[in-house]
């Protein structure tokens, strides 16, 4: 790990020395581009500039950098995310997979040649997709029958409970206690006594 670190550091120093020794005959060129990317999509940034006489291709995103020296045929990079890839054989393209919030920001691509330093700066922002109208209607038509079915079930349960309460109110339960033999005899004796007294009253005229 230590050997790799010092090797990358040495290569980076050589790249910078070569760039510093290059004599430019034309001013630098910078182009700004804005790009909106939908969440979860993949995007490819192409540094579409001539690399025929280029000596270095460089990508920068914040603290991350990718340096490829065509003269030394060497690459130094600290892009560690598996979502961002730059192929050494084609260093003019940077690809981002599954674009998310943390991928927003400025991406710089710089091509250095004898004519100058040419830079393209992309400002990538996250774009939330709107639900298509057809999908919204599909969701509505799918959910509507389920809601209606649930309403029917609730209504049926309410009507059933209401019917049961009304039935119980119209037909109250009457509790009858069973009479013992002694109670039955007393009831009969009282009945005979009342009938006897009624006959006496009818004969003698008593009320």
UniProtKB/TrEMBL annotation:
Keywords: Membrane, Signal, Transmembrane, Transmembrane helix. Residues 1-20 form the signal peptide. InterPro entries: Ig-like_dom (IPR007110), Ig-like_dom_sf (IPR036179), Ig-like_fold (IPR013783), Ig_I-set (IPR013098), Ig_sub (IPR003599), Ig_sub2 (IPR003598). The chain crosses the membrane at residues 136-160. It comes from the Eukaryota. Residues 27-125 form the Ig-like domain. It holds the Pfam family I-set. This is Ig-like domain-containing protein. It comes from Oryzias javanicus.
């Amino acid at each position: 790990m230590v050997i790799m670190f010092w090797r990358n550091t040495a290569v980076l120093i050589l790249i910078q020395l070569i760039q510093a020794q290059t004599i430019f005959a034309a001013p630098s060129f910078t182009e700004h581009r804005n790009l909106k990317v939908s969440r979860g999509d993949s995007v490819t940034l192409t540094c579409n500039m001539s690399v025929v006489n280029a000596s270095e291709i460089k990508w920068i995103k914040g603290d991350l950098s990718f340096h490829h020296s065509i003269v030394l045929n060497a690459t130094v990079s600290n892009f560690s995310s598996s979502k961002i890839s730059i192929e050494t054989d084609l260093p003019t393209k940077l690809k981002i997979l599954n674009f998310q919030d943390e991928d927003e920001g400025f991406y710089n691509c710089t091509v250095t040649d004898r004519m100058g330093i040419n830079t393209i700066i992309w400002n990538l922002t996250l774009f939330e997709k709107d639900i298509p109208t057809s999908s919204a209607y599909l969701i509505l038509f799918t959910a509507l029958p389920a809601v209606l079915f649930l309403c029917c079930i609730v209504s049926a349960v309410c009507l059933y409970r209401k019917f049961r309460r009304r039935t119980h109110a119209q037909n109250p339960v009457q509790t009858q206690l069973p009479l013992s033999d002694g109670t039955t005899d007393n009831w009969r004796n009282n009945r005979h006594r009342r009938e006897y007294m009624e006959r006496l009253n009818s004969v003698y005229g008593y009320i």
